[in-house]
Amino acid sequence: MSDQHAGLADVIAGQSAICTVGKEGRGLSYRGYAIEALAQQTCFEEVAYLLLYGELPTANELVAFSQRLVAQRGLPAPLREILEKLPASSHPMDVLRSACSVLGCLEAESETRQQTAIAERLLAMLPAALLYWYHYQQQQRRIDTRLQQPDIAGYFLALLHQSEISDAHRHALDVSLTLYAEHEFNASTFAARVSASTLSDFYSCVTSAIGTLRGPLHGGANEATMAFIGNMTDADNAEQEVLRTLTAHEKIMGFGHRVYKESDPRNAVIKPLSAQLATTHPDGHLYAISERVESVMWREKRLFPNLDFYSASLYHFLGIPVSLYTPVFVCSRVSGWAAHIMEQRAHNRLIRPAADYTGPAERTLTPLAQRR
Q: Which residue intervals of the chain are DSSP H helices?
């Protein structure tokens, strides 16, 4: 393989009817619908339904779908016991990976529990498992995960904060979930499809995806962004820090993209939401800091912010702990992963790429006693 295609860059690895990412002059779309329209005119549950079932739901279908998700937020007792035994020092992504794997033992895929039912169960259960563990390890408190909020965004924030949630906060997270839901053959989705191509069970495919997203070159950019901007005092200080970091040849996360070359269309959607929440938050200066970082990065490196950059300040304004930023990504992207697992199964061929060999030429084996 040439350097041009290292890491499978620009290699067509399969066909998909789920998503476009910057192809043929188009931006990002899910099953033909532009991400801008979905973010502005639908809720995340509609988007998840679209990804899983191929079409946007009718009003009745959306109500039924949302009700099914609400009804599946309870955690089995054995899973709760395991979550309580996981140490507080566990990485939250490891908690989600473990929760998915355990559920696969307790509610195994079968003729009576098939893939769409499992996909819906994971959409409902993953936020519950994450925040059950989080509250237990933080305060030794066993929370009831069976809250009745009809939407996942409101449910997540209410479960996290154990309080009522404003419409502005619920809407901001809902849009974020839509933006993170799907992104074609990214690393975690491809890992899920590779697992699916072996005819592995649904839970194993999702577990593979979670483990892949855990890597800092795929997930975690919004966490790294928050770590970078969190200690900056004002916009001028931010500019100094960016210049210092660039001079030291250190990477600043949240900029550029492997596929997008000019801009990330999701940034234009998430940035105004961060700006809106900044106006009422004590740390609202983080938005001005983020804008200055964006300006300097474009001036110095011609790099544009991707979705992760303004998601960092948005999640901070929503009161989401930094360690949970990437797990929120999981709670959204499981809808896209599920769609790809089902698509791979429907048109399956074992994914087994070849490699260019770069090792020694063929050698003669020397018997052990003669080796020096």
A: 35-41, 44-53, 59-71, 77-85, 92-106, 115-139, 152-161, 167-180, 187-197, 202-213, 221-229, 235-247, 267-278, 285-301, 307-317, 325-346
